[in-house]
Design brief:
This protein is an all-alpha fold. The chain has one domain. The protein has 10 helices and no strands. Helix 1 packs antiparallel against helix 5 and helix 4 runs antiparallel to helix 5. This is DUF2834 domain-containing protein. It comes from Planococcus antarcticus DSM 14505. Keywords: Membrane, Transmembrane, Transmembrane helix.
Length: 199
């Protein structure tokens, strides 16, 4: 029920409450390629919305035994983030008496140290964006001026919460699972450090 409520609240925020006028300054800068005009923190959060889905694809497909197949929702999250994942957690993630749907070759790849290290390197590269210097005041200004920034910020926090929940649900006995609280990187570290655990 909580996932359904959060989903409805997220949609309501995006449709009715998100600030911004007809022209979105951040979206215009992205489309024009003028990334230098965007605060590095805004850019890092925007880029992380492409990293969260990679992490969810990995974790969910390694544990795809639920009522509904996880892959459509995980793939849709590349475009709409938590908007696609919340219905899955609300209705489709109940345990089913079945084997894993994901092909064995894909399980081997997604659980491989190579893939996990690649994703962690993506996280590091994105984090390096912040070394350019960032301003919380500039982020706040962008939040109230851009519908994109305001919605993606709320989406980011929902994805963060879902990622922590996902690790604690699917890996209850994992070593150092509290690392999952580190956004994006944490769940990958948990998988990396518990690679020999059963999926």
């Amino acid at each position: 029920m909580i996932f359904l409520i959060v989903w409805l609240l997220l949609i309501s925020y995006a449709v009715f409450l998100a600030p911004g006028g007809e022209t979105d300054p951040i979206l215009s800068s992205i489309f024009s390629g003028d990334l230098g005009a965007i605060d590095p923190l805004v850019l890092a959060v925007f880029n992380s919305l492409g990293l969260f889905p990679l992490m969810f694809v990995t974790v969910l497909l390694l544990n795809d035994r639920q009522k509904w197949p996880a892959w459509p929702f995980a793939l849709l999250s590349f475009g709409v983030g938590a908007f696609s994942l919340l219905p899955y957690f609300a209705f489709g993630s109940r345990q089913a008496d079945r084997g894993i749907r994901t092909p064995a070759w894909l399980v081997r790849f997604l659980s491989s140290r190579f893939w996990l290290i690649v994703l962690m390197l993506f996280w590091v590269i994105n984090a390096l964006t912040l070394l350019q210097g960032f301003s919380l005041a500039a982020y706040q200004e962008a939040f109230f001026a851009s519908g994109l920034v305001s919605v993606m910020t709320v989406d980011w926090f929902v994805l963060w919460g879902l990622s922590v929940y996902t690790v604690y649900r699917f890996y209850p006995d994992a070593k150092l699972k509290s690392l999952a609280w580190i956004p994006i990187l944490g769940p990958l570290l948990v998988l990396f450090m518990n690679k020999n655990s059963k999926h």
